[in-house]
Amino acid sequence: MTSETHPISVVEDAPVGFQEHDHKNCVETALATADARCREEGLRLTPVRRKVLEMLLQDHKSLGAYAILDRLREAGFGSQPPVAYRALDFLVQYGFVHKIERLNAFVACSHPGEVHSPAFMICRKCDAVAEAQSAPSNGVLGAAARAAGFEIERTVVEAEGLCPDCTEKA
Q1: Which of 45, 50, 58, 121 minimizes the number of CB atoms within 10 Å of its CB?
Q2: d(CA 33, CA 88)
Q3: Higher pLDDT residue, 102 or 116?
């Protein structure tokens, strides 16, 4: 199908999350990017914020706030919900983490430091999440927005299905 038949065009980069990659390097690069950006912009990547980001980077799966809170408690960071929510709010605000609306959960950004519109593919069996880049200003949605005089500021694209591993097992 062409971008004219899709409400949102997906950029042709391979989605991060389903393909084989050097995960240790993936995590280290994301943490280094977050550290550098926070230093450059005068932001505070507190120990709890960094720990939440590390948790979300461990697997390409989403975690809900209460699962994050449980892991924070186990790591000695406290057990009050505001601890997790404040860290998540910061990480989302600065683009280190995305909220998966469908799951009411969070996933580490696969393209930290880049301005982009993510599209998420969520495996309904194993909960793996892959992030691709979308281009909401292209395709039918962009054309409809332009025709209405509407300026798109943010889109959330989430697709549910089976990841390659779960498809092979089916």
Answers
A1: 58
A2: 17
A3: 102
What was the pLDDT predicted at 6?
Answer: 38
The domain 9-169 is classified under which CATH number: 1.10.3720.10, 1.20.1250.20, 1.10.10.10, 1.10.150.80?
1.10.10.10
Tokens describing residue 65: 């706030």
pLDDT of residue 2: 36
Can you give the length of the chain in residues? 170
Whole-number Å distance between alpha carbons of 148 and 150: 5
The residue among 68, 44, 48 whose CA lies nearest residue 56 is 68
CA distance 108 to 28: 13
For 139, counting Cβ atoms within 10 Å of its Cβ (0-12 exposed, 13-18 middle, 19+ buried), the class is: buried
Write out pLDDT tens, residues 39-63: 999 999 999 999 999 999 987 788 9
Show the CA angle centred on residue 12, arms to residues 59 and 54, nearest 5°: 20
